[in-house]
Amino acid sequence: MSDEEEETGDTFGIRQSSLTARVRKILTDYPPGAQILKELIQNADDAGATEVKFVVDPRNHSKKHLLFPRLADCQGPALIAYNNAKFDKEDWKGIGRLDESTKEGKVMKVGRFGIGFQSVYHITDVPVILSGKKLGFQDPHSYFLRTKEEEEDGITVTGKLCNLSEFHRDRYRDHCIPFVGLFGFDNVTTDYNGTIFRFPFRNPEQKFKSKLIQDVSKFFNPEVLKEDIFEKLKNEAPYILLFLKHVASIELFTFDEASNKMQLYFRVAFSKDCMRKLKELRQDCQDRCNQRESFVNMGIPIVEIFDPTVGDQPQQQAWLLANCVSSSDPTILRLAEKLKVLPWAGLAAPLPCPIEMPNQSFVNLVRDGVTGKEIIKVLSKYFRNLAHRVTVPLQALKSNEGYAFCFLPLQEPTGLPVHVHGYFRVSSNRRSIEWPSHNDTGEQATWNKHLVESLIIPLYAILLATKPFLCSYVGELEEVKALTDPYSWWPPSYIGEKSVWGHILKHSPGLPNLVRKMPVFWSPRNGGEWVKASETLLIPKECPSSIAKMLVKLNAPVTILPEQILKCFKDDLFRYVTPEYVCQLLRSRSTRDAARALLRDTELLEALLLYIFNMPTDSLVNLPIVPLNADLEPVDLMLSHLNSDNVYIVDDELTYNILPGLDNLILSRSLSEKAKRLFKRLASYKAFCLIDTDNDPDIVCSKLLIKSIQTWIPNYSHFSSTYVWYPGEGNMPSSSWLSDLWEWFHRTGISLAMVEGLPIIPSLDVTQYDDPPETTLYLLTRGKPYLRCGTSTADINEIATALGCTLIPNCEMYSTHELALQEFVPSMTPKVLLSALSIQASITPLPMQALNHDQICTLRSYLLSDIPKHKRGRKFLASLPIYSMGVGSTTLKFAPLTSQFIFPPYAISFPGDLCFPQNILNVKVSEGHLFETLLGRGPHPLFELVKYVVTGLPKAHPQRNVIFIWILKLFKTNEYDIELSNYLKSLKFLPSTKGTINLVGALFDPEDNILVKMFSDDEPVFPHGDFSKTLLELRMLGLNTWQSIKDNPSLLKRFLLNRAKAVFSLPRDKAMFCSTLILRKLCQNYQFISDFRNIPFVLSECKPPFEYPPNLLWHGREDFMSPSEICVANDPKVLSYLVGSSQTVISSSNYDASLLTQVEGLKGLFRPIKWNDVCQHLMNIIDLDHRTIHEHREVISAMVMATYQFFSRTQRTLQDQALPDYIWHDDLGVFLEKDKLAIKPIEGLSLIPFRYALTEIPRILKYKNFLKSMNFYKQFSIVDCVEVLVEIDDGTDDHTTTVINILKYFERVSFNGKGVLIPTNDSRLLPPDECTYDDRGLTDSGAFSLSGEDEEEEDEVVFTHADVTKDMARFFKVVPLTGRIGRPRGLAIAYDQKGQNISLTTRIKSIIRNYGQHIDVFKELIQNADDAGATEVKFLIDWRSHPTITL
Q: What's residue 1380's pLDDT?
């Protein structure tokens, strides 16, 4: 319809969204989480409450006695909030207004049930409030509280307020049950002195789906609420109370369902000791709000935080709390009046505990144009009587994370290290502060800006100026490079990037301008003091911390500012330390001696060098910066032309070690590499008294080495031959000096000719002594008869001396100069000694008699270690009488290798108690190859030696076994000697336990546990006990083991047959072991089965299983039987269930289950389970008496099912078999006759217990093949139903339901013929023509008389059973009569209609307020026109007045 066609008067107006949609919109602005609790805290604070408590109640309460039944879903877990303030009329009215708040126009109530309260709908649908005499319910959905009548009439009910006394009645008492026991509320409370909010969690299983929030899963779990909301509130605990007006404690509780008691989870509260001063601070602020001049007060409240999981005692945090209220700024006063807000700002900064300060207050200190100097003057006056400052150690801190407050903290941190409070105009969701921008120039943003400029900035300066009066710090400068305690309250420079809080620094005049002339800069001078900027000397980054410490000790006025603080000020405000300043300070007469003492610290000296080295060279002259290696103060750096003593740079450790006594001439060696390089560079200039020795060893040899020796040998000269040296005594060097000296010769490549004449050859090897004794030092020179000892043992040196050689000890220190030293002192070797002995022997016989047995052996080993290559030398060596003849127990003698002898394999060890021929050479293993080299041939073969020893050895020889054991050990070490192996295998030498001599291959291993268990003790099959330690060798020669038997199939078969036939003669345990092992081997070797089928080696089961019915026959005996007579299965119980009474079975108690599983598959070995055996066993079960079947019902059932399973899986044709005409019913525990069974029942009709369908018998249908062979009826018929009626009539039990179902079936198939019986109300079955149905309700009795009361005879009418319907009765032609029925109703209590509501005007006013004054009406209209598709937009301001007569 076009606009012209619209009828006049049609409804046209503004439509507002539903209440749930409005709440849902509010929830998108208010985040879930701890903000919910903060809104409730704010409301409690506005109400004047001093205590706030929260508890997560996980209990489920009774739902039986409720006035509003739909609230049953709200009787589960809930969040409980308590405060000790009472609701008044305005509170009950205000909590029901969604867009309007009772706080409007009341400046001291910032959150009294405003929009923020709606955040509770994040977790609940029905808030419940108990306060005073009332109990209120809110229901934005208008679902939970509506009665049936209200719902039918379309009445919207968003809340109800009831008298608390109404709910103590038994009828509706369950509404109060969740509050009982909480915060002083009990069963009889009718006027509660406080307020309890209950917010039941949404239940995801409830049928009602909330329209307020989409995801209900997050908050319904109490554990999630505790971990999320409670934990977040804990994080804000140290500062959450600071700027509230009344609340002094917040407690969080959990609920222990076991004890039905609350348990404290967390508590934050002001200390009791500070409560009086805290109340004064709060009250003063509220009293001074409307004055025309500023009022500042400060105090130090202590916040106590108690967490039971952390400890038994609360943790304390002190805060310097500063508030500023009112102002003389006219803009502030004008906006406060217009916006209904207060000129109130506050700051809070953390302090160390314990600290005390009386409350301080200042009037008109915060004003336009106030200077830092004025602030300090006022503070000094007030704080001069403060008892003392708290002294704390200086330490680096992580910057505090400050928050903005509007009595409670807002969501995002400010970036400031302190907390800032103000009566800010914040967004409705309390997330952000309004601030002027190109999009926002409204009065609310302007108010916030003026609040920061006029109140917060000067108050911040007062806060910073107060800290020096309260705290003093002690510490080192190196600790202040990060943000530290003295500056922990300062705003960092990067805060200037933020539009709101950066204004503190960017505004002019800002905070930096106010504090620049205040003594707020800390310096460690004089133990730590506060100074002004003009008095400080800043340490730049490039200045090392050690230099800064030095400057502090020299009482220089230095300090360090953290970078983020320094950037807040202009560059020209501070002076800085420079290298020029440091040099000037070190040369100063007043500090020179103190600086020289400090510079004994090499680390400090190094830092100083690195710091000043780049200055001009002449700037370094006369500075005390040259440290000596001696423990002396540094000397001045002097110029070389002044003839001062040189200082030598000895960087090399080894060079320093060979120059003892020269520390007063050597530069300190503890300097860092970088510092050393600096001094080396100075030395390279040749302008200073510094000489570098690293690249000039000649200086060391020509000057320093001689100077060093002269410090401990004052009379040293090149003309003396020897000197006495006492290592480590007095000023003499230690023993390492000599070894270091020779090492230095090697490293520098110095020729020994350059040091000829130095006393460097010792008479003792001093390196071998921890405390060397007096030592003679020989000069290094040629032409002396010195012979150095060899590197062998001391015995060789003694032997060499006994044979006429003169020796001096050899030292390892010479090893790097061996070749050059041979020119001066040759060293002894085997060839040198052999040559010397040869020369001596040509002059006179060698005195061999002077050597004992051990010395001769030592000499032989030494000389053989380096056999001459030339024949003449080998011949002379062989001619020496130093070689041992004789082995075993034969007496040894020494002889030359010139006569006939036997050279055995030298690895052989001959038994010491056996006697061998004398002509066997006694050769050590270590000398064997040497003898081969000396003789030019190898030893005799082992086979020849063994054959020589064994040949002619009699059988009765007393050591015969010992000799053969020795031979077996020889064989073990030479197992690849084929000749020896074949010889021993063919030799009968091994005695058995009974004494018979056998080949090795004829006996068995006695350590083979399997074989030992398979033979009796009387069988001579194991070796004699003397050979128990040579079984390994015997196995190598063919001794039988179980493994070797298994590996040979033919041998295994013979062995198993032998043991199977011997089973009867073995003891029972060994017989069973043999039987078991034979069965296992047959499972692995099917080809053996036919040979074992008729050998009696398998044990049968003599006793039935424990659960076997006692009256059922057991077919079995305890005996070893042939496998062909025994049945076997992997499950012994199933085997007994199949043929227990008809066949013998294998013993399950003597064979393990795994073996039975394996032998079941041995076809052809055991007797198979036959059809007739199973059938006979089943007949035996059926023949059992009823009592036995009843008492053993479970096992009988298992047996029968096992037989059915067997019959079902057989491949034979079942129809020709003689099967029993009975079927087992598992639930009833009886056998049913076949003629009372059918495959399927009649659909919708059960004839149990008179007839059974196979589909109704548990577990029977899975045996389909078996059932098919039984030829059951396919389905029951009408004939069966008639027979069942007769059987019921003949019985005594009541089966009326079955009869009714049969009649319904007859009615369904239209059968009403002969045999139908109708149930009566006197529990009989009669034909239809003998009973009557009451079609009109004329009687309720079982019989109805047709005659009068006075007649003697009555015609009794029998009525049909009550379950026989009139239609059924008519179908079966029963004679009719009559009947009738009736029904009832109930009540409720009175209540007030309450709840949330939104007036349209309020809603529009809220929208206008949210848009603010900067709304552009024209832009909004243009946007709407564009959305409608318009191409032109025009505006006209019409100032005319029009007629009103015809309206």
A: 29
